[in-house]
Design brief:
The chain is mainly beta. It has three domains: 1-33, no CATH class; 54-270, Jelly Rolls; 274-372. It has four helices and 23 strands. It has a seven-stranded antiparallel sheet with strand order 2-3-6-11-8-9-12. A seven-stranded antiparallel sheet has the order 19-18-22-15-16-21-20, with no helix packed on it. A hairpin with a 5-residue loop joins β2 (62-63) and β3 (69-72). The chain is elongated. The termini are far apart. 35% of the residues are buried.
């Protein structure tokens, strides 16, 4: 028996007599049927904030909520995690502009997410078989007008600026953009662990960042990702913009947002960044041994395999202590030997005996050690 899907839905009589066809498939029918892991954006519902729920962005690229990198040269923007959302979501990313200053020249103001080669190979970007994709998202801004979201390669010389309109101030609106990815053989990207595609939301970059053709691929324009039609959000003091429900999927239809569990989303984020955060004094950060009277090593094992060997940052060494047989000591940082699964951390102190077992722990709840393998 054939199953028919049409704009008016499947009727019991059609199922009974087998007259259902696939001639007229409505977008609502597709939304109800398309399933499986589909969203290429990580943390699109803005659930994860390992670095903190309030980040100040000024003059250089910095990560805000997990996987979302932001830069704003002309002014200072505060990025926060909020509970102001459209129906069906719990969290959003809010951007609050400081003193407004319009971008000029090579200034940039944007938030973006870089997508790894391993996660995008099936899109066949840069080939004659490049796929059609659909980006959907919810946005709310105090400034109405035309905005730009771009799709760019890792060399920033192959870009597609797409426009969308925010019609009503301070009102959640859902936007959808469909495009066929670049078939240019000049596409700069990666098929493995490096950056292959960037999804870029612009807020008023300088004219040197403008691509020429709107809603089309521009090849060979270096370090450009905006368009002259972009509204000057960055030029307005106190302007706000909220974003959530960001989904990039294969195909020409925007289906319902894929809500993954918090644990799944956290593991996806931890491939790029993970933070060991103390929740109490005395929380352990690793065990190890004294290599000599002054040198010691502790081990670290990552709960998720990281994209590449990460760099390490930490709160302050005064937040940690070394416990050994007869007391406690403080330490200085000496080396980091870690790969994608984990490794060893080296510390320096004094007064140990080679072979002593030691325990590295926190003295307060502000202590953290973070590992960064972002694209």
């Amino acid at each position: 028996m054939a199953i028919t899907i049409n704009g008016s839905g499947i009727t019991s009589s059609e199922i009974a007599d087998g007259t259902i066809t696939t001639d007229d498939i409505s977008s609502s029918d597709v939304k109800s049927l398309k399933s499986g892991r589909k969203n290429l954006i990580i943390n699109g519902a803005m659930q994860l904030a390992q670095r903190g729920t309030s980040i100040t962005v000024a003059g250089s690229s910095i990560y805000t909520l997990d996987r979302w990198s932001m830069r704003c040269d002309a002014t200072t923007v505060t990025a926060t995690q909020e509970t102001d959302t459209p129906t069906g979501f719990a969290t959003s990313l809010k951007l609050t502009n400081g003193t407004g200053s319009s971008g000029s020249g090579s200034d940039s103001c944007y938030i973006r997410q870089h997508l790894e080669g391993y996660n995008t190979n099936h899109l066949e970007i840069g080939t004659a078989n490049a796929k059609t994709v659909t980006l959907s998202f919810w946005v709310k801004s105090s400034i109405t007008g035309t905005y730009i979201v771009s799709f760019i390669d890792s060399g920033s010389d192959n870009g597609y600026p797409a426009s969308y309109t925010i019609s009503s101030a301070d009102t959640w609106e859902k936007k959808t953009i469909t495009l066929t990815l670049s078939d240019y053989g000049s596409w700069a990207g990666s098929s493995t662990t490096a950056r292959n595609l960037t999804v870029h939301f612009d807020f008023g970059s300088g004219s040197d960042r403008d691509l020429t053709s709107l809603n089309a691929w521009n090849d060979g324009t270096t370090n450009a990702f905006s368009h002259s039609s972009q509204t000057d959000w960055v030029g307005t003091t106190g302007a706000t913009l909220y974003l959530t429900g960001v989904q990039l999927e294969l195909g020409s239809v925007a289906t319902d947002f894929e809500h993954r569990s918090y644990g799944e989303e956290l593991a996806l984020c931890q491939r790029y960044y993970q933070k060991m955060q103390s929740s109490m004094g005395g929380q352990g950060f690793g065990a190890g041994f004294a290599y000599s009277s002054t040198a010691l090593f502790t081990q670290v094992f990552f709960p998720t395999v990281m994209r590449a060997a990460p760099s390490k940052t930490y709160s302050s060494l005064s937040d940690f202590r070394i416990l050994y047989g007869t007391g406690t000591k403080t330490a200085t940082d000496s080396e980091t030997q870690v790969g994608t699964y984990g490794g060893r951390l080296g510390w320096t102190t004094s007064g140990l005996t080679a072979g002593d077992g030691i325990f590295f722990d926190a003295t307060n709840t502000t202590a953290y050690i973070a590992f960064d393998a972002e694209l």
